[in-house]
Amino acid sequence: MRAIVLSWEYPPRVVGQLSGYVKLLTTQLAANKVDATVVTYDDHVTGETIESSGVRAMRVTNPVKTHIGVLTWVLTLNQEVERAAANIYYDANRKIDLIDVFDWHFIPAAVTLKNGLGIPFIYSVESLEDHRSPTANSSYNLAIKSIEWLGFYEAKMAMVKSKWMKEEVMRIYKVPPEKIAAIEVSSDSWIKDVLKLYGNVAEAKYAT
Asked: 27, 71, 118, 166: which is deepest, by most CB within 10 A?
């Protein structure tokens, strides 16, 4: 199985807990014979590195250097994420089974890759805008919520880390429960459950 993981943070770039989780996930994927490539952002370094675990990391930078906010930074960066992921797809002779995209930042790229190249994606939720900014209802917040909604709508499946988050996704975005997999990292079967989800999404791709 070949998977592309999209994450806006990945070691050595650490912003929050997501960086460490994606590192753990991709290391475990590689240990279970999944060909995993992370496409991520870096301030300065670009290009591909191959880690001792076998995980490949493709780092891109933003071609636009001046921004008025996070939204412009994210949306201009997405074109580089799309380019890098598309190159991986063609270098693999168009044999990429799925994309796993973390949080809202790279949802636009995942949607383009899905609709342009036919690669299904999983939307992995680390947090939601309603939780990060519960009292904010500005155009900025609504734009992020719209991107989150787009992710849930276009994704083959959503993956969350708790039953509580599953209930929140259902409540806020009206996502059907059968479209959300709640997989707790502390569970003994965590990576097996992730691999099962990956397998189901990949099988659905080739069944259509």
From this structure: 166
Strand partners, 39: 6, 58
Sign of CA dihedral 87, 23, 61, 64: positive
φ and ψ at 100, to 5 degrees? -115, 110
Q: What's the pTM?
A: 0.95
Phi and psi based region of residue 153 (left: phi greater than 0; alpha: psi -120 to 50; beta: remaining): alpha
SS3 164: helix
> Percent of the chain having pLDDT more than 70?
100
**Type of residue at 171:** R
Chain centre to alpha carbon of residue 119: 13
Identify the band that residue 208 occupies on the pLDDT scale cut at 50, 70 and 90: low
Residue 117: is it exposed, middle or buried by C-beta count within 10 angstroms (0-12/13-18/19+)?
Answer: middle
DSSP type of residue 68: S
Residue 36 near residue 23 (C-beta atoms within 8 A): no
Apex 50 CA angle, 47 and 52, nearest 5: 155
Packing angle, helices 190-207 and 18-31, rounded to 10: 70
3-class SS of residue 36? strand
Residue-wise pLDDT tens digits, 128-175: 999 998 777 889 999 999 999 999 999 999 999 999 999 999 999 999
pLDDT higher at 49 or 135: 49
The answer to whether 143 and 71 are in contact (CB under 8 A) is yes
